[in-house]
Amino acid sequence: MRPGELIAGDRGARALRDGDLAQAWAVLAEVMDPEVPVVSVIDLGIVRDLDWRAGHLHLVVTPTYSGCPATEVIEGDIRQALEQAGFAEPALERRLTPAWSTDWISDQGRERLRAYGIAPPAGSASLRGASPTVCCPQCASSDTELLSQFGSTACKALYRCRACLEPFDYFKCL
Ligand SMILES: [Zn+2]
Predict the structure, then answer these.
(1) Average pLDDT for the chain
(2) Where is the PaaD zinc beta ribbon domain (predicted)?
């Protein structure tokens, strides 16, 4: 069948066109995390795979924190953005293994977190347990102290900078 041709008997299904997958990635790069609206689902690394199956876009999504209520919101936002871009009824597959890790956050995502005032995860998740050196997102000082294991959400810790005295959220390593 020709690229883009509708598939009979399945609403919205069509053959893959050149550029469809690249466009879908571009759409996803604009879908922001509801809790931290400066990082996209691509920055977070939660979209693990994207392909075309039986006339529809098929995505594999690994939620950041299992049981996080934001997961449903993120999946809804992904679906809506793709539908609006002309991808009818995208299929989302939720994959829990391997579990998402902060190691999957892109360099751009880390930079965006810092610019937003959240210290990005320090080091690698494989080093968790060791106390990380957390740098202040405002003044970059490493002279910081932990105030609380839980910041504005469970996945963040609250720190304070001893240099500029500003409190800030730190995105914990997972
Ligand atoms: Zn500071």
Answers:
(1) 89
(2) 123-172
